[in-house]
Amino acid sequence: MPTFSAHDGTALAYHAEGGGAPLLCLPGGPMRASAYLGDLGGLTAQRGLVRFDLRGTGDSAVPIDETTYRCDRLVDDVEALRDHLGLDRADLLAHSAGGNLALLYAAAHPGRVRSLTLVTPGTRALGIEATEADWRGAVALRRGEPWFEAGSAAWEAFLGGAELDDLWPDIVPFLYGRWDAAAREHAADDAHQTNPRARGVYYSEGAFDPAATREALSALEAPVLVLAGEYDGGPTPARAREIAALFPQGTAAVQPGAGHYPWLDDPDAFRRTVTAFLEAEGRPP
User: Fold this and answer.
1) Can you tell me the distance from the alpha carbon of 7 to that of 79, in angstroms, rounded to the nearest whole number?
2) 180 found inside a domain
3) pLDDT digits (tens, 9 = 90+) for 171-223
4) Of 117, 143, 124, nearest in space to 24 by CA
5) Cα 62 versus chain centre, distance
6) Beta strand segments in the chain, E
7) Do 199 and 254 reside in the same domain of the chain?
8) How far apart are alpha carbons 222 and 118 in whole angstroms?
9) Domain containing residue 155
10) How is 237-265 classified by DSSP, letter by letter?
């Protein structure tokens, strides 16, 4: 397991697997170890995945200063990883809450981004968040599932202000296209892969300046893919198209039958979509 030092001396770890050009992968959670990404539906057959364990997660060290868990302050760690790998420009893939970090990185270092793949991304950094209507619409799509009644009641309680942790067992099936044994195992890993203290700091006050970020990214030359799952509420397919439209070279794609983890729901479909984007003709080297 390779490591390198961040600007403040924190030892940061990453996991490299597969062949081909590197694809830097930023996990969500927020602040969940990158192990849950796995091989991203077999993308290791085409690309060398570099799964980054953000500080305080996975095999990376805990920093002395916990304020460095804030999303905007993690940008320097991503840049340090790119520099450590010796890449002039990087292909970045980010999932869920990691989308915010990728967006802030691209805004701060646009010339270092070769492409940006946002998988069911969080986009608070752009001032765009899933609405109650988005979530209710996504929940309604699962009507008929055996866990629907309990799950929809839990969602309504959460939207009404109840604590998410108490409702999570009933809500989590909505995040997967199929609530099968593999999904259950994947969901159960969240508890021991996530740093709760870091998670509480990630979105803390001052992390985002949406107007400045949107202005910076309006000139981003790198191509951007926003991939949504058909059943996901954050973002919905319509919201994904709204996000993609903010970029000069933005494209939205929707994976049928998928939730928040599309590489688990249909690995082949996920791999085809991402590979086609990364290998598009005319892509600058």
Assistant:
1) 10
2) no
3) 999 999 999 999 999 999 998 999 999 999 999 999 999 999 999 999 999 99
4) 117
5) 21
6) 3-5, 11-17, 22-26, 48-53, 90-95, 113-119, 224-229, 250-255
7) yes
8) 13
9) 132-175
10) HHHHHHHHTTSTTEEEEEETT--S-HHHH
Q: Which residues pair with 95 in a beta bridge?
A: 119
Distance (Å, rounded) from C-alpha 133 to C-alpha 43? 33
The 10s digit of each residue's pLDDT in 97-121 is 999 999 999 999 999 999 999 999 9
Identify residue 61 by its one-letter amino acid code: A
- The Cα–Cα gap between 33 and 26 comes to 10
Q: How far apart, in Å, are the Cα atoms of 201 and each of 72, 100, 238?
A: 11, 14, 29
SS3 93: strand
Per the structure block, which two tokens stand in for 238? 């319509």
- CATH number reported for the structural domain that contains residue 35 in this entry: 3.40.50.1820
